[in-house]
Design a protein that fits this description.
two-stranded antiparallel ribbon, Rossmann fold, alpha/beta
Amino acid sequence: MSHFDSNADPFESLAAAYDRQFTNSLIGSTMRRAVWNRFPLHFNPGQRILELNCGTGEDAVFLARQGVSVLATDASRSMIDIASAKVRQHGLEDKIRCECMGWDELDNLPVAGFDGAFSNFGGLNCVKHAHESLNALARRLRPHAHVLLCVMGPWCPWEWIWYLLHGDPARAFRRFRSSAQWRGIHVSYPSLRTMRWWAKPHFTVLRVSAIGVFVPPSYTEAWALRHARLIQFLNRCERRLEAVPPLPWFADHYVIELSRLPR
């Protein structure tokens, strides 16, 4: 059993409402499209890609429609069930295979079997031994395979301001701790410097960018809906400047794009 299995229960309870509360929300869809903008630069039709923490399968469906084959994995059985139903609904069974599997079960997969990999919206933050899991991921990838990791960073000014204005300093500065507990899950917030160090033995860093430095985090959705035009403007600004330092260091998430070094 995976160490992640003990962490799966909160995601089991979130699965049924996940698309309504995040995937189809204004902020969630805005952030997801920003990540999707990067996919065509790394994943090509005919390739076989590994997705970790696939959630309800939204990203896998997007890639499959571009001709990419995806092994979509998640530690939550309920998430996998919803993702599988979505795959059938879109008639993409020939492109997407869904499997209930956590990050620390990567060694069960064939060595050097994938042309690329990605993990969206903080999945790596919920992995207890992220460094070791990245090492295991590297062994599953062909030389020069590309990896996209969307990670929650340690410094998020939106979070400081939002929760301070709501009288909750503990939440405002929760990322300052090396790790925190969320619904019983161990969550860490690795800095870009830490991620670069973790990646160094097996990967070269191609690019880093900000997701949610001007656009506010998803828990501001009710406010964002009242200011939808402002959110659109902030997103346009963010997309133009997303890779400009120091913005990736101060975003709700950052995307780090990697290339697998030759063995």
